[in-house]
Amino acid sequence: MRVLSQPGVGLGANAAISATRVWHAPFVPIRSQVHISTLPPRGLQPRLEPKGVTTFMRAYELMLIVSGNLEESSAHSWISTVTKAVQGVGGTVHGTPDWWGKRRLAYPIKKQNDGYYAVFNLMAPGGALDEFERSLRIADDVLRHKLLRLPDQEASRRGLTAVSA
């Protein structure tokens, strides 16, 4: 806040009385005035990293469409590939992946009309699946994938997180 003294400004007949005009600078909080909550968002479970850093596990759903030109056994091997990749970044696959088998695609993808569908429920630290998702994007056998972070209520309904009030 700056205070500038300007005698006689806007006082009319009382020009002999000095007035002060107060100008306010924009509010910029000092670091000690900013409150950053150290509590996790609702529905997250803490996980202790090897270095002693605590991160929070998030619930995800992954839908994977593998090329229909593969044999079913090689397409089925993508389940173990995904499981190992998720465990490699510190996450877990919750339950058994839902294997839908070979289905007709709604429209051709990469000049293919069929694909093997699989749905996974995952728990992983936030941001840990970025590199894994990148590897799915460049894999030739994967036609499409969709990785969604589940809302807290849906994750609790599926048994992926503890119910929080």
Fold blueprint:
Blueprint: E1 2-7, E2 18-23, E3 45-48, E4 54-67, H1 72-88, E5 92-93, E6 98-109, E7 112-125, H2 130-138, E8 142-149, H3 152-157
Antiparallel strand pairs: 1-2, 3-4, 4-7, 4-8, 5-7, 6-7
Can you give a write-up of this model?
This protein has 165 residues and is an alpha+beta fold. The chain folds into two domains: 2-33, no CATH class; 45-157, Alpha-Beta Plaits, CATH 3.30.70.60. It has helices at residues 72-88, 130-138, 152-157; strands at residues 2-7, 18-23, 45-48, 54-67, 92-93, 98-109, 112-125, 142-149. The strands form two sheets. Strands 3, 4, 5, 6, 7 and 8 form a six-stranded antiparallel sheet that branches. Strands 1-2 form a two-stranded antiparallel ribbon. A hairpin with a 5-residue loop joins β3 and β4 (54-67). The longest helix has 17 residues, at 72-88.
> Which structural category do the helix and sheet elements fall into?
alpha+beta
Relative strand content: 35-45%
Q: What is CATH's topology name of the largest domain? A: Alpha-Beta Plaits
Uncertain stretches: 1-5, 15-24, 32-38
CATH class of the largest domain: Alpha Beta
CATH superfamily of the largest domain: Ribosomal protein S6/Translation elongation factor EF1B
Number of DSSP helical runs: 3
Strands, count? 8
Largest sheet: 6 strands, antiparallel
Quickly describe the structure:
With about 160 residues, the protein is α+β, with helices and mostly antiparallel strands. About 20% of the residues lie in helices and about 40% in strands.
Keywords:
single chain; 165 residues; alpha+beta; Alpha-Beta Plaits; 2 domains; six-stranded antiparallel β-sheet; 3 helices; 8 strands; 19% helix; disordered N terminus
